[in-house]
Amino acid sequence: MARIGVNNLTFYYEGSFDNIFEEVSFSIDTDWKLGFVGRNGKGKTTFLNLLLGKYEYTGSISTNAAFDYFPYPLREEDMERPAAELAEGWKAGAEQWRVFCELNKLGLDGEVLYRPFATLSFGERAKVMLAVLFSGENDFLLIDEPTNHLDRESREAVKEYLAGKKGFILVSHDRDFLDACIDHVLVLNRRSIEVQAGNFSSWWENKSRKDTFARMENEKHRKEISKLKAAAERSRQWAEKNEGTKIGYDPMDDHANRAYIGEKTRKMQSRATQTEKRMEREIQEKEDLLVDIENPVDLKMKPLEHFKKKLLSADKYSLQYAGSAKLLFEGLSFEVCQGERVFLNGANGCGKSSLIQAVLRRVKGEESGVGMAESGSLRTASGLKISYINQDTSFLRGSIQDFCRKRDLDESLFCAILRQLDMERVQFLKNMEDYSEGQKKKVLIAASLLTPAHLYVWDEPLNYIDVFSRMQIEKLLMEYKPTMLVVEHDVRFREQVATKTVELGIGDCQAGRNSGIMTGR
Asked: 246 and 258 in contact (C-beta within 8 Å)?
């Protein structure tokens, strides 16, 4: 077991207004299963890159551990090559028999190594990279958000796999995933960094208790400050009143009384000044206790009420690629009524996003999409207004001002929502292509919340979104109860928000699954 010691680490990006890390110190063991938690843009991926030696910094990071990083980089030309060839470049000295053993633990056949990488599903790609990552010995592994775009089945397989490993840092915003995989937590708080034994839930419970205690102490402190202010004000008023009594006295006749009043006034003024200094010290001490409290601002949205109760319905609806014998799904029947939050669930490639695109086309009055064939019926209510979040963020370019202008959004309100989602004001000066993936997702979420709609259609909205913002969004949806059609693989989020779940199956699966299973609460 080795240790990684971080001492007085300071780092900032060239041209940045603020330090990402400032005189940070902590230590971790390379034997731990360490979960790395923090708000978007706080420096999680940056810290992993510092461990890899990619950036210069001040302070020190001392360790004799060797590091390897997930996900491995991919070039466009790599997508046509088999994973067996790519693995040699990803991890020097990776032995194929070890990769086969790790793939077996992940529930994959070794033949995936010999298929072009582009033909693998998101889940298969992640599993292949993880198998290569863990095929070495004695490396301390840096695993950056392995569950993005993974379906439930793949997440469960990766979760079970990592639960049996150790010696890694795992960056993830999925609470269920973190709880299953880690035994220590490294948390980037608002003003500090802490390391604690346990999983995310145990850390959150401890933090909630500490925050509650700090708030109670702060409330008591405010009452004390109020009393001190009143005492200081009384002392100052008495001093001014006594000072006024000296006016009109003849010093030759009443010198002793004048001197007495002057001394009494001086003491009162001094007492008032000392009380004010004491208040300032106490305020500073209490503020230091409150800097790391998470006080997420309550978000707002503007759902519209439609004149019809049923907004969307599918009856024995089937979808497939034109010219292909393989169905994405068949015989799907479900409906979305006002106030329902319907989640589409199923494996990658089962047609969730294709179904969403079909719904969007129906709302626009368009027929089947190019290259798609459908049967059965899919109906939407007339005059339906949709607010849509695309899972793809690559189209986000240019300034916030241009984005708001194109979508006819109030820029000040839009930026206010981004601030409530904990984006720093300095980010508003950048072009959106320079944002992190989490920040890009927040742009799409803010735009959707600001768009009045009868139906909110969200396709994997929480990829890369930090856990604190997820909790904010959960609270918002439970308060406003908008009508929604959602694809999201975060188990905790779905359990909190969904009123109904529609299960989709792959076209070549058994007919019982293809028919679509609808559950609700």
From this structure: yes
Q: What is the pLDDT of residues 313-350, one digit of tens each?
A: 999 999 888 777 778 888 999 999 999 999 999 887 78
Q: Which two tokens stand for residue 424?
A: 């720093």
**What are 367's two structure tokens?**
């027929």
Alpha-carbon span 165 to 443, nearest angstrom: 36
CA neighbor of 134 nearest in space, from 120, 146, 119, 148 = 146
The segment with the largest mean pLDDT, out of 130-139, 211-220, 285-294, is 130-139
CA distance linking residue 102 with residue 122, whole number of Å: 17
**How far is residue 116 from each of residues 78, 79, 87, 90, 124, measured CA to CA in Å?**
9, 6, 13, 16, 12
Residue 213 is given by DSSP the state: H
Separation of CA 325 from chain center: 39
How far apart are the C-alpha atoms of 411 and 228, rounded to whole Å?
43
Residue 227 CB contacts under 8 Å (≥ 6 apart), including other chains: none
Pure H helices in 246-254: none
Q: How far apart are alpha carbons 141 and 181 in whole angstroms? A: 14
Contact 517, 388 (CB under 8 A): no
* Whole-structure pTM value: 0.77
Under a CB-based contact definition with an 8 Å cutoff, are residues 27 and 186 in contact?
no
Residue 197, phi then psi, degrees to nearest 5:
-75, 150
Tally DSSP H helices, then E strands, for the chain: 15, 18
Neighbouring residues of 37: CB distance < 8 A, sequence distance ≥ 6: 173, 178, 185, 186, 187, 188, 200, 203, 467
335 has which bridge partners? 313
| Residue corresponding to tokens 């198998």 | 131
Using one digit for the tens of pLDDT, what is the confidence trace for 421-462? 989 888 898 999 989 889 999 999 999 999 999 999 999 999
pLDDT band at 74 (very low <50, low <70, confident <90, very high): very high
For residue 458 the two structure tokens come to 């969200």
